[in-house]
Protein 1
Amino acid sequence: MVKIIYINSKKSLIKIPWGQCQVMNLVDIICNFVSISIFVSLVYYVFNELYILNNAHKGKFYDIHKANAPGRPEQNINVIVYAHNNENTIVQLIDSLKKQDYSSDRYIINVILDNCCDDSAKYLEIVGGTRIWRINTSTQPVGKFKAVVWLLERIMSSENSNSFVVVDADTITEKDFLNKINSVLFDTPVVIGDVQPLNCSPNIFSKFEYLNYFSGTRLINLGRTHLKLGNIIDAPVFAIRQEVLEKIKFNRKEQDFEEYFYSLKLLDNGINVIFSSRVAVYKFFNENILDVAKTIYNRRLKRFVTFRNNLPVLFFNSNLRLKELTLSMIDPGTITKLLALSFLVFVSNNYNILFSNIISDKILYILLGLVLIKSLSALLTAGILKVGLKSIFLLGFYTPFIYLFSVLVGFKQEKAGELETKGKSNLALKNNDPERCFIETTVTNGKNEIPCKLEIVQYNNNTQVIFMFKDKKLTSGKQPRVDYAMEEVMEKLKKHGFVLKTCLNCGYFRFNEAIASRHNGAKGYCLYENIDSGSRIKHLSSIWNSCENIIPSQARSAIFQKLSID
């Protein structure tokens, strides 16, 4: 005998055989679970974002108040410029940094060239005044924050710095940039800065990119700053005190993104990352639809991977602000919220399940209205009316296509097997592939100076130096330290009557075992400014560096005697 059960639907009374009842109940349970989960998530993210945006204006007043703060004593600042094929902009940035209204002996400029295949290095050598760090790996490029961590591992323990500032090479700064950094860092240990457009008439996709930034990221950062919720240090400029780096080490993460992981680590240790519009850099926006789609996808991927890797925080950590920041990693965008609400309205109108009886259409439409009001308010605050009615229409028309392209970009990368490797360390410095660094320098025979190149090859446990001039090479053996390999090459050159014009051969260069053991024989102190201007600051320099002040190493003992150095 077949049992018949009856269920009420919004349309009519439906007869369903008893054998199908269990399947139908299972479908209802899944549908209820999915619908209620989506609804609860949307309510949380919509109201949380509204609360943060409401406090964004208070964050602006906080910035204005700090702008009127009195001047602060100058600290020693270490500026790190990250570059990947930025030959068109890097010279302007370096020029703007060298023209700061800040004592020149109070800051130094380091430039990271991340697998650059353009003429950035050549232009930097012409401009001068920077320390160049080249990264050459099999994975290109390694990425901004992995490169920054790589550099900090090498220089932080020996630098006489109070703070570090990281700047993108496609930006420029104003003359008071470092003064503002110095002032803000007296009040807070970590700060992320603002980015402003340089071009007056950008194309439609550039308008989309920076309106998306001003109506979303910037306002959210301001609100989070005022509420002391912490921010992500993924910004064109950020600054941090050295004492924080020493307390909470900036590690390279194999399965995470450093900029996100470190932000969570800071908040877990009670250190807020604040946003300050006073600390601003300027950028020329020139985007196309594919660039914008890639930016959106990569940001979404970084956040998802960070959330996945830090999921235990939600269950095993009592820090509510840390939980909130972790949950913010998977905050859906406006279009995703609208699609999710459309799905819930469809379920509510077509299925007679528990969700449909608890949540009415009216509640869903109110939630939909809040999403639209929030987005419109943010766009008005960001100044969308200034772009013109035609641009507003085009932005509205292109927005769905841009997000569709971002999904397609993600699908393409996932299909190519890149999804799992994106969160892993791309900096291949610990594998079997050697790290190679090419340096342009000079060799002399006492009469003529001849341009040449050095190749520093660093393996896991040893180093090799190769001297190159046209088609001729002199190669050292694999030595346990860099200085041993350099000395071997210099001895070979000496037999041919040539001297390499590098710091290791300079009379102003101080190199002892204490310094050598700390840096694997790669660094020492340049004493030129100690002699020339009586400075007491210790200037660290790599043994292969060269400059116009190099003098024969025979003068070293006299310089040491004058400075009372043993």
Note: Residues 1-16, 18-23, 416-433 have pLDDT under 50 and may be disordered.
Protein 2
Amino acid sequence: MTNAHQTPRTPDIGATVLGYPRIGPKRELKRALEGYWSGRTELDELLGVGERLRERSWRELAGAGLDSVPGNTFSLYDHVLDTAVLLDAVPPRFRELALSDVDTYFAMARGRDDAQPLEMTKWFDTNYHYLVPELGPDTALRLAGDKPVAEFTEALRHGITTRPVVLGPVSFLLLAKPAPDAPAGFAPLSLLDDVLAAYAKLLSALAAAGADWVQLDEPALVADRSAAELTALRQAYERLGGQPGRPNLLVASYFGELGPALPVIADTPVEAIGVDLVSAPETAEQIAGLSSLRHKTVVAGVVDGRNVWRTNLRDALSTCATLLGSVGRVAVSTSCSLLHVPYDASAETSIDPAVRPRLAFARQKVDEVALLGRALSAGASGEFASASRQANEAFSEVRRDERVRQRIDALRPEDARRPDYRERAEAQRSRLDLPPLATTTIGSFPQTGDIRRARADLRAGRIDDAEYRNRMGAEIERVIRLQEDIGLDVLVHGEPERNDMVQYFAEHLDGFAATEHGWVQSYGSRCVRPPILHGDVSRPAPMTVPWSEFAQSLSEKPVKGMLTGPVTILAWSFVRDDQPLAVTARQVALALRDEVADLERAGIGVIQVDEPALRELLPLRERDRREYLDWAVESFRLATAGVSAATQIHTHLCYSEFGDVIEAIDGLDADVTTIEAARSRMEVLADLREIGFRRGVGPGVYDIHSPRVPDERGVEELLRLAADAVPAERLWANPDCGLKTRGYHEVEPALRNMVLAARNARA
């Protein structure tokens, strides 16, 4: 039913945001979840926290002057998992547990007994993680839940009409993976008809409940899509758009340009299309050339939903104004959901006063959207002129360090090269004398209550720096002794002194600012406080050397020095946007290079530089990837290439689809690459074997994001699978990721089973 356009019914969508943070301004949901999982609190208390957070968000957004308030953006764990449960895509292993609905939901996210959790991976090029639905030809998809309707009616009871937000049917299928028992060649997209039948019922239920608008998110469309996938997109929205009696439909996409998907959606009978004009400003020109948009609303994402800087209001208003003559209506919005930024910049009272005026968190971005909406409909006012002037003044001074810039200019190609791997491997064998299938961990050990109390006591002034260092030293010694008792071959100091693997370094580097309350959800109950990279980066003093040197003095076994790589520091920070990322990456790399050199001088023979975000920042369009991978690989090598052949460089990557960056992983030229592999049962090793990877590999042999303790036999089975792809002399045994979020009651038996399995496999 092409070229069938409907005139939008009132009320129009107006100024809005595509989503809002859900963890709570004080991480209320995190605490409620962890209380429920540990058995300390009842389900009613957890659900009550969710109700209060939803009401607070709805009232806050409505009170800020938005014309349309998004709903169904709350989740107890993950919105993709919510969609899978809504559609009854529950794999049999979870049904067989015979749990309550909510405990089945959490089992899918975290695992339970022998039921492995769903695979977890990054949400496009963000640091948010989603649970990957498993679908097979026998998956009977149907509308099995009512969460969107229940939350819509819940908001109505508070006097607020929301716009329910649901992951779109095409993106749901494109983000899913074939179930383990699915036949070769099965594609989840083949289930489109069943999914559309379920969505049609959902739209009818929402219309019956009184919903005027429903937002269907289709972020998968900003990646390269095949002709068949675009045909599926057309079929989906011709069918849903042609459904009688439905609500108005907003199809929203973000994180990039829609490209060839835009005219496809525009030619279907939906009322509104949301576009990201921050990451893809060129989309404005494409919109102007589409006559099929002349009767539709374009929701213009001109306020950055992924970064923390204030909006250039005049430029944003100008962008919206240029669309007015080309489309039916223009509504102002954020570029994506505000899930990716903290709640409120006004809470940051102790941040660098030169940085604070430049910041806009979720609450401030809502105000920016509302102000832009008023200016677009009624003209720029004195209020708008004042806010615009303040934003411009806030950016008048960005800190530059000429010494850093001169050092960047002086770089030579050889600064990013090490000796040939064969020479390095021989030198490292002689120095380290490790067995085949050497065992290690990824770096962090559990952050106990005692560690957190010591950090809180230091911040509050109840203990001095000397006492804090004594407590951390005692914890490091305890962790070293535990690892020796377990029998690990390469030890770590456990990182008790580190609050976060990026924030810790940001606090020790010039050019960064740290927040106090800037929490952002990473997955489930896991929250991070991304630092703010606002100026030129340099290292004023060693950051990790004293801790690593002390740890190494406690053992005859090698102890790894632990650093976070330049790409990951960028990916997990809010980064300045006034210069290319490649330049900023080189600045961070040179600061890390100085730290690596100091670790080597202190006698540390194994240094791990983690790059779990290498895949995360990969551009979504193929044409943009080579440039990114070139500077990403170069920055890692700049950070690590200044050491001798006998110093073993490790890197770690986790929770991404690695096939797209497999050659870049090889290009990092690390001596040992540890990588997430347990949930996918060593899938990544086939990719490494295909490209002829010839260096050390440590595929994760158990999933640390699940509370399950792996048994010895299960670990040994995974090691045997790994040994089919990697010779034992280059194979390592390690967990999937760091152990910071687990407890010792899980960590110790898991590591003992891993060591026993490795010994069995050696034999």
Note: Residues 1-10 have pLDDT under 50 and may be disordered.
Protein 3
Amino acid sequence: MWTTLNPFDTINTEGYYMDYKVFYRKYRPKNFNELIGQDNIKEILTNSIKLNKIAHAYIFTGPRGTGKTSTAKIFAKTLNCLDNSNGISCDKCERCLEYNESADIIEIDAASNNGVEEIRALRDSVKVAPYNSKYKIYIIDEVHMLSNSAWNAFLKTLEEPPSHVVFIMATTDINKVPETVMSRCQRFDFSKIPSEIMFEHLKKIASLEKIKIEDEALNELIKYSDGCLRDALSYLDQVSKFNTKVSVDLVEKCFGILSNNTMALLYDKVIANDKYEINKIIDEINKSGVTPLNFINYFIEFLLDKMLVEKSTNSQILKKLINSLNGVLLQTNSIVNPYTIIKVELIAFNSNNKEENISREIFSNEHKKQEIIMDIKKTDNIEAKDEDILNEIPEMEDQSDLIEIKKIRINNSFYKASKQLKNEIMENWKKFIENLTINKNFSILGNVENMNIEVVSETNILFSTENENEALLFNSKKEEIEREYNTLYNSNYKFIALTKKEWLEEKDRFIKNKVRNFEYIEEKTEENKSVNNAGQNLATEIFGSDIIEIR
């Protein structure tokens, strides 16, 4: 005889424990009234039962843990319920009580039964009438895992099944389900469970299980589950093992997640340009086990939420910080230690922000430059005696000189350029950025990390960037950047940066003018500035024949 002691453990009279039932199984809904979320789907399915308008095939699709399989089980039970006139299973009749052992409800895991032989066996079994129920129901989970041959074998049966058969399929990847199958099913799209609905449900379970958990900690669990109720129940189950009250800090340490408190503190330190604290916070996040990818996603989400409530004056700063983090996001797979780059980006953010503001007027006269300095001092509350800002303004050549240099370096980049050289330089460039990071050369790193290598010749490298200010700043420091790079690789390259728009124009011009001849131009020479040609096949050599169409 079995005696229940508490919700967690069940023990027999001889003292042997039964298996502990985890929350997502213990609190699995038994009927449509208990199903959390997906109200539109519940209404359609219950009405179809009440009106006796039952289709022969259904397909449930959506993110994991949103109730697809639970809904399939409830729907199957309700279809065979002896008292389902209101569209809800009674949970008292013989069919409801024997649901888990019913020979007329067949559950198939397509992930492990995805071959043509299994589907042929299914095709044969559908011909057999139900044992003692109205319908013979097949629930096929992860149906997208079926092989092509299995789909082909299944298609005819799905198209014209016996009247006593109902198929209910569930998938997290609807794109892998053939159109011929979907066109024969009623499709239901499950959405992520809203946070407020999950909160009320988990709060109720926490009360039943006598779990002491702060509301804020519960919200963090819900946020971490990302709309997946099954995950949220598993997380609540895990923290229920603590003897103390579950706090935000405890949740953060337990799951390696980041709370809004941590994100808010980091944001404040970035805006304050507190380099020591930024470094300290990032180190703590790294030690906690949060992956760089998750950290960036958490921080961007926090900043987006902040944009909704911040004043417009701060929105631009938030936008720049988000764009900056997105840039790091693109590099996370190609860098040995992404957290180092994250540190660099956040520590250098304020300085870069000031440089971008200044760069819009970079070619103006000295008087205008002084006005900009004074404006920045007023904005940032910098005292008049603090002249550090002067060091952040790059000295640039005359605009007319830069225009001439750009023309020459664009020409020289195309002269004897090749795809092989480009591939070699791209590898070197990655190592160059890593070297700058290791040596903490932030002044150069901030100007080169967002640059894309477009064309490489034996003497020149042409870069592009989405941001006009980044191109200006790069060109203002090109000699310094060249010196660092050439010293590292014992080379003698010259650099030039274009905006993405400028680059596409140059590329288009190059491709269309295939009959021109290029000759190398010395930068300091005023003679021979005509641009002549490198040959008809040079465009194909640089860009590849598969992406260029010459008109």
Note: The CA atoms of residues 377 and 385 lie 10 Å apart.
